[in-house]
Amino acid sequence: MDSNQTTNPVLDQYLRSSMADLDSLLTPAIAFFFLLLLHWANHVLLTSLERASLFTIHFRLTLYRHLWRSFLATICVLVFLRSLADLACILPPSIVVLLLGGLCIGVYTYVGPAWANAAYLGARWAAWSGLSRTAIAPALVEHLPATEEGWEVLARQLRGRVEVHPVERVPTSVFASAALGLRRHGVREDVTDLLIATARAANSGRGHVDVECPSPKEARLPPANTYRPLLSGKSVSLLWGEGAGFTRRISRGILSLPRHLLSPYPVLPSGVPAHGLVLAFGVLARNKGLTPASLVCNLTTLPALRVFEEYSAWYPHPAKTLRGYFRAEIESAMGGLGPAYVSAATELALLMADAIAKPTVIREWLAQRLEHQDLALNRRVEVLGATERELDRLYRGSYAAMLVSLNTYRGGVGIRPEMLVFDALCRKEGVPVPQWASGPEMAERRRREVEHCGGQEIVDTLVTAVVG
To answer: What is the pTM of this model?
Structure first.
């Protein structure tokens, strides 16, 4: 036999063993590389969406961040355990135990914080994507539809003439919308953009835009979802969003939020966690109304703050230690609206910071639209005979009612103590409670407000502290 064809059985066995060991090492290395690539691709996608101001898609995707990380971690664990099974026969037991311990620590470090933060990201979505209250300029009021369906009519007739802002864009394909849990149907355009386009079309004579949906003036019906009073030549306050014919979207107010607060783990430059501040900014971007500088909040003195904290459902209110940090941030963003508004915004942020420990409560509170002035009550009291001044007083107390509502909310059905705040404002301003507010209907409303806000003593004490 030729010597070149002879083989060494020992060498052959050694080479086979070495190749098997090399294969056991290369397979997980390649798998880990692709997992790392997927993680990096996800990071690049979210960063690109943020830079393009596609915040509705961005915020929606972050709701699944913990599930994505869990999926990657699961694959990583399976590959690691498969490789470890092949190497266990040549590795000392102590090394195997050490590798398993490192795997557990790595998975927890990668997945644990994402699951712990998922509740905050859900609350962030709710805080920034709820109904918006927008001021409609006097020149555009006549184009407001009289029904919610009228917005869909306007959107269809103006299709191609109104560009959807990047913040509000959502996927139009069935698969992408279903994957993100977003509705495909509904008006995607902003109300102001639609009304401006309607006015321009009417002024230029390029067709009648509202043929299928007569204007309120022609139909002699008030515009849908507008707060009273409706005064000639004055701006109108409109409540709109999902549930009123529109798709759900993030408020454009997100464009003014500092970049360091857009992180899944928001912190101020001082290192203070800012989760409550981000949630409050989301609410405040949507619920100001026509004259936010006139909103009432007396939480500027130490006695009033002490009462507000001691009678709170969130007592001992640990987030109060962040008041100075939050107030400085809010002052820089909204200081032009006056000290009362800054105080109300600061206390809302502090309440949100405490309530984030129970994010389900925040989502329930927002789902009931308790951050907004009660539109049904506003329209009802006008029917009962409320004057323009009395409707304004009801509006000026809307932030006080919001703060008392969240401060006493423990879950379940909630109600804003708007009539109790209205009574307190009447006493503060030295005017009698009007006749329409003294009847049995409003008496029943007050009874429900007391029942849902912790009882007579608690709600009266809190209302007095907030109103002054």
So the answer is: 0.89
72-93 per-residue burial string, b: 16 or more CB within 10 A, e: under 16: bbeebeebbeebbebeeeeeee
In three-state secondary structure terms, 230 is coil
What phi and psi values does residue 270 have, to the nearest 5 degrees? Answer: -75, -10
Q: Which of 430, 437, 434, 428 is nearest to 463 (CA)?
A: 428
Distance (Å) of CA 204 to CA 52, 156, 317? 33, 19, 57
Look-up: residue for tokens 């979505």? 125
Q: How far apart are CA 322 and CA 348, in angstroms?
A: 12
Q: For residues 163 and 452, what is the distance between their CA atoms, to the nearest angstrom?
A: 44
Provide the pLDDT confidence category of residue 15 given band limits of 50, 70 and 90: very low
Question: 190-212 burial, b if ≥16 CB within 10 A, otherwise e?
Answer: bbbbbbbbbbebbeeeeeebbee
Taking the C-alpha atoms of residue 430 and residue 82, their distance in angstroms, rounded to an integer, is 78
pLDDT digits (tens, 9 = 90+) for 330-376: 999 999 999 999 999 999 999 999 999 888 899 999 999 999 999 99
- Residue 180 has, within 13 A of its CA and on its CB side, a CA count of 23
**DSSP character for 348?**
H
- Four-point Cα dihedral 208, 213, 216, 220, nearest 10: 110
Q: Which residues contact 106 (CB under 8 A, 6 or more apart)?
A: none
d(CA 179, CA 181): 6
Cα–Cα dist 455/171, whole Å = 46
Distance, in Å, from the CA atom of 57 to the CA atom of 323, rounded to the nearest integer, reads 32
The encoded tokens of residue 147 equal: 């029904």
Position 448, amino acid: R
CB 57 within 8 A of CB 170: yes
Sign of CA dihedral 446, 449, 451, 455: negative
- Residue 402 Cα distances to 75, 184, 326, angstroms: 46, 32, 19
* Residue 292 neighbours by CB under 8 Å, 6+ apart: 337, 341
- Closest by Cα among 77, 93, 121 to 278: 121
Please give the Cα distance from 451 to 433 (Å, whole number): 21
Q: Given this model, what pLDDT does residue 14 score?
A: 46
**Contact of 421 with 463, CB cutoff 8 Å:** yes
- Length reported for the chain: 468
